[in-house]
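Predict the 3D structure for this chain.
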Amino acid sequence: MSELIRRFRADRTSQLIALALTVVYLLLFQFATSELALHGRFQNLTFFALADWQAIMFEARVPFQFEPIAIVEGPFFTWLLSPLNIGIGVMLGGLTGTQIALTNVARKCSTSCGLNRATGLLAGLPGLLAGSACCAPIIFVLLGVQLTASIVTVMGLMVPIAFVLLAGGLLYTVRVGARRCGEAAELENMIVVAPSGNS
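Done. Predicted structure below.
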């Protein structure tokens, strides 16, 4: 695993992939919960926080969706701020981004040790499939589907399911990626040692 982490820390592209996907996922998650909305008005940036924000911050609207405690309005957007919802979005986005980034590292390791690139990409398949569990609410919102309260409640329960699936997919990716990068490191050491043994 240390070789996989070392290569990830040295791979600026994979780090940017993880960060970008985390941010994109968070924004989509905020759209899905209707806390981030776009409008056609140009207005100055304003911020307003509720006086009793500490009392309502932990109140749940539906399972795993919490009440906003502040509002930010700016040019063409309105953002209802709920620290707990933002935290959930960052966690799910971070799992998704890290999954894809480590898949990229595993792909590079597979290529460097002579394996097919698809071998490394297979490591990311469980996490990619798991992502559909938490993307389902986003798809419904983007398509403008009217949802009943019971369906919204069920979709709220998809958050812990998605978390478990994404965490499981990430662990699988780490295991496969660590093996691939370990094989690549051994091959690179053999290539370095071989010329010195011949001299």
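The chain has one domain: 2-34+83-194.
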